[in-house]
Amino acid sequence: MTKTYKIALLPGDGIGEEVCEQAVKVLNKCEKLFGFSLQFTHGLIGGAAWSKHKNHFPKETQDLAKNSDAILFGSVGGPVEAQFEQQWNNCEKNSILAIRKFLNLSINLRPAPIFSQLTDFCPLKKEIIGNEDFEILVIRELSQGIYFGEHSRPSPNEATDTSQYDRKTIKKVAQFAFKTAQSRNKKLSSVDKANVLETSRLWREVFEEEAKNYPKVNFESIYIDNMVTQLVKNPKQFDVIACPNLFGDIISDLTSVLPGSLGMLGSASFGDSVHLYEPSGGSAPDIAGKDIANPIAQILSASMMLRFSFKEHSAADAIDQAIRNVIKIGYRTGDIFSGKAGEQKVSCSEMGDVITENIG
Ligand code: IPM
Ligand code: MG
């Protein structure tokens, strides 16, 4: 019998809808070639949900998310200048942070794939970024820390945010990080601020304990301030980087510039049962609806969904390979188009088409 996977498709706002459409195209091709069946149910989240339900993460979407095998998420949020309008006010907090909490998404994978053909777009010098493909994988804890502690404003002149971590959650991230490092280049760097923060001391303690179970992994703990310096000076010294929530937010933005465009970064977030897959970039309202966005981040997220939620590794490999192929052939959306000979500028939907054609 054909395996059927139920996917909650939550495109959200801005470019979400158009890039999700490309991912679905690619996934539909995989169904045919690899013999599984995907059942998509469309749901509303973010500003799109607000328009209909006056709620950024309505009950209907919660039920859909809970009852799916995986979630393919677009992006949420509105134009900066409209952030105080009701539809957009606290939109990210009420939708993406809320769904992270709702599904207890605690492990977040943010791979930054560096393609040798795109290093012109990397702001680092050629001597530093080099001319070979490589990837840095940021693993970010996503469910605790200062994001989810108590926030208070007792008076106009005082504000407090508290950060909390428990051993069990850190251990889960640490085990995942060590296993991942072991299956890759056997290098793991854990980021903290253990010279100051108590939560960081616990983080470091748990990682150091876990390190004893993985003697083949070259493990280091590194302070966040040193980490940002090292990442700019010599990013290639890193392979897998594990971070608590806030540091992971910052570090993954830093690594996101290495591939040359945010449009190249997919991500996966693992919960207790349902996992969520989303591009790392935002909703880019300024280019929404113009068919010019780069859909690769969304398509890479779809490939991660096939790999991690459904264990359809051959299909995931085929998507990743198709992306490498189209880049090598020279297809470029505007964000990665340099005008060099051999490049062909394509729209969002054309990029979806050529990737689809290159599968199989
Ligand atoms: C991210 C984003 C979110 C975060 C925002 C939108 C709340 O920056 O996913 O990295 O800080 O986690
Ligand atoms: Mg961020």
Tertiary shape: globular
Q: Provide the spatial order of strands within the biggest beta sheet.
A: 2-1-3-12-11-4-5-10-8-9
Low-confidence parts lasting 5 or more residues at pLDDT below 50? Answer: none
Mean pLDDT: 97
CATH topology of the largest domain: Isopropylmalate Dehydrogenase
What is the second-level CATH architecture of the largest domain?
Answer: 3-Layer(aba) Sandwich
Strand content: 15-25%
Query: What ligands are attached or bound here?
Result: 3-isopropylmalic acid, magnesium ion
Distance between the termini: 22 Å
Structure description:
The protein is of the alpha/beta class and 360 residues long. It folds into 2 domains: 1-118 and 260-360, Isopropylmalate Dehydrogenase (3-Layer(aba) Sandwich), CATH 3.40.718.10; 123-258, 3-Layer(aba) Sandwich (Isopropylmalate Dehydrogenase). The chain is 40% helix and 21% strand. It has 12 helices and 14 strands. The protein has helices spanning 16-34, 47-53, 59-66, 91-102, 126-129, 167-183, 198-211, 224-233, 245-256, 296-309, 313-329, 348-357; strands at residues 3-12, 36-42, 70-75, 107-114, 134-141, 151-155, 158-161, 187-192, 218-223, 240-243, 268-270, 275-277, 331-332, 344-345. Strands 2-1-3-12-11-4-5-10-8-9 form a 10-stranded mixed β-sheet, with helices on both faces. The chain starts with a strand and ends with a helix. 48% of the residues are buried. The model has no long low-confidence stretch (mean pLDDT 97). The structure holds 3-isopropylmalic acid (IPM) and magnesium ion.
Secondary-structure map:
Elements: E1 3-12, H1 16-34, E2 36-42, H2 47-53, H3 59-66, E3 70-75, H4 91-102, E4 107-114, H5 126-129, E5 134-141, E6 151-155, E7 158-161, H6 167-183, E8 187-192, H7 198-211, E9 218-223, H8 224-233, E10 240-243, H9 245-256, E11 268-270, E12 275-277, H10 296-309, H11 313-329, E13 331-332, E14 344-345, H12 348-357
Parallel strand pairs: 1-2, 1-3, 3-12, 5-10, 8-9, 8-10, 13-14
Antiparallel strand pairs: 4-5, 4-11, 6-7, 11-12
Helix pairs in contact: 1-10, 1-11, 1-12, 6-7, 8-9, 10-11, 11-12
Magnesium ion binds at residues 249, 253.
